[in-house]
Design brief:
193 residues, two-stranded antiparallel sheet, alpha+beta, 11 strands, nine-stranded antiparallel sheet
């Protein structure tokens, strides 16, 4: 672990009997190198604690898996068991909040996240309600935030990591995330290889 290392964070969830995984990337930019445990803790408090405000109660964030991509080794996994906060009826499990992570360069594509657990009370005819938009705005801020701990000595900024055609990471192609935009209720769809 060293300053400028790049990490993947897998937010591993279950929702209506289905496994859901959202992957985020962060680069250590602090004064002191961050550990996987510190990164997981700060991610949980900064991102997941906001994310659950727009997710159904029957969605559970089971674990956070942190992997150092710059200096590969075994991943570290942390059990959290954080549940969504919306008790309204969930939409079918393939419905998701859609977010675009906007890059700062052409080194990568923009990033996208589809967040499971959309509930009936936060949408009307497939469109987010004004109450939902207020919550989603807070979530976009959490996605964009630089993770910070230890009085600002531990910092990790969100990035987008390029991939090769065979699916492996290309750490020579990294873009900073300059904005995050909620764009629509969409569907869960992983890229097919």
């Amino acid at each position: 672990m060293a300053v400028l290392d790049i990490y993947s964070i897998e937010d591993r969830q279950t929702f209506l009997g289905q496994s859901v995984v959202n992957v985020y990337y962060y680069q250590d930019v602090g004064v002191n190198a961050i550990t996987e445990a510190q990164l997981a803790d700060i991610f949980e408090v900064t991102v997941i604690d906001e994310l659950v405000s727009v997710q159904a109660t029957n969605l559970v964030h089971d674990t956070i898996r942190v992997t150092n991509l710059t200096n590969p080794g075994p991943y570290s996994e942390y059990t959290i068991g954080t549940q969504g906060e919306k008790s309204s009826e969930p939409l079918p499990r393939f419905n998701a909040w859609g977010f675009r992570f906007v890059r700062d360069s052409l080194a990568t594509r923009n990033g996208y996240k589809r967040i499971a657990g959309v509930t009936e009370d936060l949408q009307s005819s497939g469109v987010a309600t004004s109450a939902a938009l207020t919550l989603l705005n807070t979530v976009t801020g959490a996605f964009l935030a630089t993770l910070s701990g230890d009085s600002g000595n531990l910092l990790a900024k969100p990035v987008i990591v390029g991939r090769n055609s065979n699916g492996t990471y290309d750490l020579s192609r990294v873009s900073n995330v300059v904005s995050v935009v909620y764009y629509a209720i969409t569907t869960q769809n992983s890229r097919k290889r």
